[in-house]
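Consider the following assembly input.
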Amino acid sequence: MTLKEREQEIIADFNFFHEWDEKYEYIISLGKELSPMEPGLKSVKNLIKGCQSNVWLSSYFKNKKVVFCADSDALITKGLVALLLKIFSDAPAKEIALFELSFVKSIGLDRHLSMNRSNGLVKMIEKIKKISLNYLKE
Amino acid sequence: MVANSFTEAFLKSGDVVLLGEMEHHSNIVPWQLACKKRGVKIKKLNLKNNGTVDLKMLKESIVEGVKLIACQHISNVTGLQNDIEEIVRICKKNNIYTFIDGAQAIAHQEVDVQNIDCDFYCFSGHKCFGPTGTGVLYGKQELLNAMPPYMGGGEMIESVSLKTSSWNRLPYKFEAGTPNIAGFIGLGQAFLYLKKIGLNEIQKLEKELSIVLYNEIKKINNIIIYSENEGGVPICTFNIKGLHGYDLGALLNEQGVCVRTGHLCAQPSTHLLNTNSFIRASLCFYNTKEEIYSFIERLKRANQILSK
């Protein structure tokens, strides 16, 4: 599945929800389904700076694909990271680095991009892309 | 401006500026920048557990070298008020200059700078319903006269030659460049608006709102209240045990309620009050009791979603 197809799948999932609370309950449940992150990986190095809540992001490179692992101390943030990982994790580094996300706006979460300057969604996407670019250079 | 020009005129290397952990970043960072340039030290003023200035601790902090205290009138985190008259009195007795950040007080009560007798008092225009980018500084004339200009150009000059310049009288000396004319006309209108309602009336209305706010919010399970400011400025800074402020803020936002979450531009205060972040409900005289009840219902709904 291409990243575009993965993204379309998320948009289709969100089309089921008509109420704001259903949408958030779903986001929170996605966060809860994330594979647990090893405590050792929740390091200062993996912490994404500039987020209101703590977000840790780690990765490894296997079969030319980047696999991400993440966690957050806030439930909604964790759900948002889970959404990003659904798209970006276990994907070719080049594809990740080049992909332009559009789902955030189409599922009505764009306020999370602009709600607060210290909100981390933009920073999370930047970090995911930067990590992938670094693997490409190796 | 005061941090720069006052420090240049009155402080020397080794002198000390006293700052408490409850100060807004705007009353910390300018001092850090200015003090670093001149080798002036910043010393922590120990505060009470609720973040207000303890007069006994203040007296103990006054040691050799302390030249200025920069202190808030009312905290933007807790809404609690410092005994500013007494702080100024103690400082004057010890020849310490006083700089008071009145941003959180100015729209909520009458402020008489001559009665307070501080050396400087300042506030931002947007905190009293004026346009952003405006502000007011009160300063003792003899100090302002002795301070060098902060920026150059515009009406602040008296005469200019290539070798030297001289300065216009107060307040022009500190008003470099083209003034924010439209902004200050707006600020003037904001003052007239406040005057029309009356600050005593505002204080009365806000006291009533604050009592309702605290009565209702205390009923929420697992609430942690940092402000304990019932009957005062109508803000309540809180957390719900086990939940992240960002999550609650996002869900309140979805329901049309604006709260502030995070460190509230006062990061050191999070250490003092033992938390990573806050949620602040900030009311004003134009809010209603019905809005408080509605906020509480929506807070409960947010709590319910997050606690599933």
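Chain B touches chain A at residues 243-247, 250-251, 253-255, 261-262, 277, 301, 305-306, 308 (CB under 8 Å). Ask yourself how this observation constrains the way the partners meet.
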